[in-house]
């Protein structure tokens, strides 16, 4: 499979805590993107980080990319119940390859 | 803006039946994609169209055909449905060479009995 792998598969935290999820991939990439999927809905783009970038911020989101380790992490700070969703990384190598996702539950 | 519109939202087929999933985008995107999502498998690319008039196979193309009818529309056809094609299907589009981010439709839940 050319998919990435997210870790952990499931994560449960209290509202206000930070959530960290990781993505590993196998080959060189042009960029890496993170998406969110609420239950029964389509995916929504969160953030893109290019292969020559190491860190990027967007609101409460922080993404890092380590191309030497072929890994990325997504940090959501001060989590809210509305952040409950599945999160996917997608690696861009001419086509987009998605990971298997991390299911995040934020408990109010 | 409607974004990416998929029809139908739900479909039940019997083994061997055929059907076409429709997708249209109104964002003037050059590239369009069809994915399937299965539990524990993430999203897998079935076919994509980098530009109007071109289509290419993705990871799991067997059993499917596609048509890029024009710049807006990209359809996915199941000629003879099989139970293994039970899945949720998503259409997506983006501006390749632009900001790259994918926009997704709301999905089609397909069951093949």
Task: Pick out its properties.
heterodimer, A: 108 residues, Immunoglobulin-like, five-stranded antiparallel beta sheet, 11 strands, 0% helix, B: 113 residues, seven-stranded mixed beta sheet
Describe what this molecule looks like in 3D.
The complex is a heterodimer of chains A (108) and B (113). Chain A is mostly beta strands and 108 residues long. Chain A has a single domain, classed as Immunoglobulin-like. Helices cover 0% and strands 59% of the residues of chain A. In chain A, the strands form 2 sheets. In chain A, strands 2, 4, 5, 9, 10 and 11 form a 6-stranded mixed sheet that branches. In chain A, strands 1-3-8-7-6 form a 5-stranded antiparallel sheet, with no helix packed on it. Chain A is globular. Chain A starts with a strand and ends with a strand. The model of chain A has no long low-confidence stretch (mean pLDDT 93). With 113 residues, chain B is an all-beta fold. Chain B has no helices and 11 strands. In chain B, the strands form 2 sheets. In chain B, strands 2, 4, 5, 6, 9, 10 and 11 form a 7-stranded mixed sheet that branches. Chain B has a 4-stranded antiparallel sheet with strand order 1-3-8-7, with no helix packed on it. In chain B, strand 4 and strand 5 form a beta hairpin. The model of chain B has no long low-confidence stretch (mean pLDDT 94). The chains are: A mainly beta (108), B mainly beta (113). At the A-B interface, strand 4, strand 5, strand 9 and strand 10 of A face strand 5 and strand 10 of B.
Question: How are the SSEs placed, and which strands pair?
Answer:
The complex is a heterodimer of chains A (108) and B (113).
Chain A: E1 5-7, E2 10-14, E3 19-24, E4 31-37, E5 43-50, E6 55-58, E7 61-66, E8 71-76, E9 85-93, E10 95-98, E11 102-107
Parallel strand pairs in A: 2-11
Antiparallel strand pairs in A: 1-3, 3-8, 4-5, 4-9, 6-7, 7-8, 9-10, 9-11
Chain B: E1 4-7, E2 10-13, E3 19-25, E4 31-38, E5 42-49, E6 56-57, E7 64-68, E8 74-78, E9 87-94, E10 103-104, E11 108-112
Parallel strand pairs in B: 2-11
Antiparallel strand pairs in B: 1-3, 3-8, 4-5, 4-9, 5-6, 7-8, 9-10, 9-11
């Amino acid at each position: 499979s050319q998919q990435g792998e997210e870790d952990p598969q499931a994560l449960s935290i209290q509202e206000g805590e930070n959530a960290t999820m990781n993505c590993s991939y196998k080959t060189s990439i042009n960029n890496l993107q993170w998406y969110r999927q609420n239950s029964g809905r389509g995916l929504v783009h969160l953030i893109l980080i290019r292969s020559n970038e190491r860190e990027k911020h967007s609101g409460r989101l922080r993404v890092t990319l380590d191309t030497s380790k072929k890994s990325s992490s997504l940090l959501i700070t001060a989590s809210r119940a509305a952040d409950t969703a599945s999160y996917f990384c997608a690696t861009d190598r001419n086509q987009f390859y998605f990971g298997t996702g991390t299911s995040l539950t934020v408990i109010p | 803006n409607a974004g990416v519109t998929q029809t139908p939202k739900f479909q039940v087929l019997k083994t061997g039946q055929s059907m076409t999933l429709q997708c249209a985008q109104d964002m003037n995107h050059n590239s369009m994609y069809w994915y399937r999502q299965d539990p524990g498998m993430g999203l897998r690319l079935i076919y994509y169209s980098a530009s109007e008039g071109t289509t290419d196979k993705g990871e799991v193309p067997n059993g499917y055909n596609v048509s890029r009818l024009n710049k807006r529309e990209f359809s996915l056809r199941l000629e003879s449905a099989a139970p293994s094609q039970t899945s949720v299907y998503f259409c997506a589009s983006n501006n390749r060479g632009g900001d790259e981010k994918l926009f997704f439709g709301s999905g089609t839940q397909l069951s093949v009995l």
